[in-house]
Each structure stands twice: as C-alpha cells, then as structure tokens.
Write a structure and sequence with these properties.
With 260 residues, this protein is of the alpha+beta class. Helix content is 15%, strand content 37%. It has five helices and 15 strands. The strands form two sheets. The chain has an eight-stranded mixed sheet with strand order 2-3-4-1-5-8-7-6. Strands 10-11-12-9-13-15-14 form a seven-stranded mixed sheet.
Length: 260
Amino acid sequence: MTTSLAGAPGYALDHCALGVRRVEDALPLLVDVLGGEEHEGGPGIGFQGGQWRFAGGGVIEVIEPTGPPGGFLHRFLERRGPGVHHVTFKVPRLREAADRARAFGYEIVGYHDAFPGWQECFLHPREAQGIVVQLAASDPAAAGDWGAGWRFPARAPGAPPPPAPARVLGPRLVARDEKAAARQWGELLGGAQTRSGDTLVFRWPGCGLRIAVDLDPGAREEGPVAVEVAARPGLVLPDGVVPVLGTRFVAVSEEDVDAA
C-alpha cells in the first residue's frame, strides 16, 4: 500500500503524561497550585493513573507502575527517574497512522489494536527526538467499564479549596535539528508551526496543549526539559525541578504565548 506524505492528517494533541512512582505525589502541584480538575483515570497494562484538565482544555496525565518489576514504567523510572514520559495524539485510524509514520521512516513499537475502545502504537524516543510519542484511536462507546474501581487519590484532610484552573500550555523540548523537528511535529503529526527566535511552536486546531521546541545544535540530549504554564497574578511555581515529578514547571507570560 502506498501512503501519502502530504496533507494534514487530522491529528489532535490529547495530553502530556508524566511517569512517577506514586500518582498522589502530583496533587500538591497539579491540584493545589494549578487547580487541575479530575478528568479521566484507570488502569492500563503495567500502569495506572489519572488525568487532570486545566483552563483552555489542556490535560496532564500522571501514571505510576503496577505489576512485577521489568515493566516499561519500572524501567523508565529506574533509568532516569520521574519525568515527562510521553505525549499522546488522537488519530482517526490507527493502521493508517502507523503506516504514515513508517513512510516517514519511523519504527512503530507497541502496536495494539485488539480492543476497539482504545488502539495504540508508539514512536520510540530514540527516533522521536527524545520523547515517546503515542498514537491512539479511541471509541468511547466501545470502552465499556474501563476505569471502574480506580479512584483519584484524595487530597490531604482539611486542605483548602484548590484555585481556579491555570492554563497549562504543554511540554517544552530541546532538539538539535530544525528540519527534523519540523518534519516530526509539523509534517508527520500535523502541527501548525510558528517561530520565535530559536524556538519552534506547534499547535493543533482545537487542542488545549501545544509543543514548544528549543533549537540547540550542541545539545547533549534531546527531549523534554519543562512543562509550560501561562503566567497569571498569584501563580507561584516551584523553583527548579519538582523532585517527585522530575519536571520543571515554568511560567510563560501571555505576551510570549501570543508571540510564538
């Protein structure tokens, strides 16, 4: 079968996922500081976790390992500790998305299409600029009772009401090669590209998240370096990496958001 490389594929950036040792470790930042609202949650193969939704529709997922040692998330945490694990793109049809990625020269791993409610495959980070890219086709009507029995972790007793949801913008990454970044996030995955200095920003129509890519030809490693949040009065983010999440959360002014 011949797969065309041209044209917008109609993909949507759905969420950014953090791999952690315990989902509840995310509550002090995602809920108490950023005001995230419970969205979806449940078990998967080798993990369980929840998603929080923010102003503008951005979603952050937090997953923790389950099952015996040796699973993908156990390996991730042993190798590098907590941090941004993947970004997920919803696609119209998984088989066509996988064929399209192969036509662009990517190896597909973890292809699963047996369950009609959720079908997925992945681009490996060694080929995808240092981050796992999940391609997923979902049918909520066929999901059945997925997530039944799983509950979001409870906040500390007596905790004050969380603030109004902040606007989470999405992950910021470093890439060495501008053409490779534009090819992956723009041509393959359908993002509309803008540029501000040495930063490329990719957006998808109707999506609450974006992906910002800093171009650094001399970077030792490619991949995620932070999660960006739109600045607002009263928002105070932790300095540096949040240890239990292995991730920096940085404030971006509205002027910078609109300029890129």
